[in-house]
């Protein structure tokens, strides 16, 4: 949504928050969970062969059903098949499996099987919405097929989804298993994201409270249960946090907060890569591969 559109909407949203906070919170939740829909996706979430990024054409595609539809997975097999460890790649908001493809080659070179998938409402997966429960349900479905994972490598909102899946923070969903975790440009606080969204939209206090109640109902837990440091302390996995100091979407303070969860978290900063170009940086991909195999 453009800044000019938001400027005109804020007074209306604020008034609606006072008059009908429950309805306003429900509508805000729907908007909060709806990513922009790229033109290349059709109504079923499928892509034509020509639209499939070249970096995914070398993978074996597989549709994985989950209770709300299906997600598209891409499997990359190493040349040596002995003692295969599986690494899962989880993209962020408005991303897709192709956006994580820069990690595939270094991970394959270390003998790992790599599985990337499109989250609901993204890429070639079905649906129009994505939220934490949907993301966790889809990750759990992928885990049932390919897990347990040696490592999960995530970007942005994918990190919040992986943390919730590993910590069992969404009620009714199985706990996902992994030995190592990588959080790249990840948020430390879903509460912060929710309130930043509410502020941008113009939600008043009552509307914001209604939005957070709706999240509680859908996820089975209050927003506070999804705080990154809290979940990291619960799972205590060896974790690598990589974040750029010039990230304008999620400031470096998010990485610092995650790193404070404990000595099992290693924080490494980059310079000048921002929130998305960090995924294309070869040194970052190589560092992730070294961490996955246990080097630091």
What does this structure look like?
With 296 residues, the chain is of the alpha/beta class. It folds into 2 domains: 1-32 and 190-223, no CATH class; 56-189 and 227-296, 3-Layer(aba) Sandwich (Rossmann fold), CATH 3.40.50.1820. Helices cover 39% and strands 18% of the residues. It has 10 helices and 8 strands. It has an 8-stranded mixed β-sheet, with helices on both faces. The longest helix has 17 residues, at 3-19.
Short description:
With 296 residues, the chain is of the alpha/beta class.
The run of helices and strands is HHEEEHEHEHEHHHEHEH
Unreliably modeled segments: 41-45
In percent, how much strand structure appears in the residues? 15-25%
Give me the CATH superfamily of the largest domain.
Alpha/Beta hydrolase fold, catalytic domain
* Widest β-sheet, arrangement of strands: 1-2-4-3-5-6-7-8
What's the architecture of the largest domain in CATH terms? 3-Layer(aba) Sandwich
| CATH level 1 class label of the largest domain | Alpha Beta
Q: What is the rounded distance between the termini?
A: 41 Å
Any idea what the shape is?
Answer: globular
In the residues, how many domains can be counted?
2
- CATH fold-level topology of the largest domain: Rossmann fold
Main attributes of the structure:
39% helix; alpha/beta; 296 residues; globular; Rossmann fold; eight-stranded mixed sheet; single chain
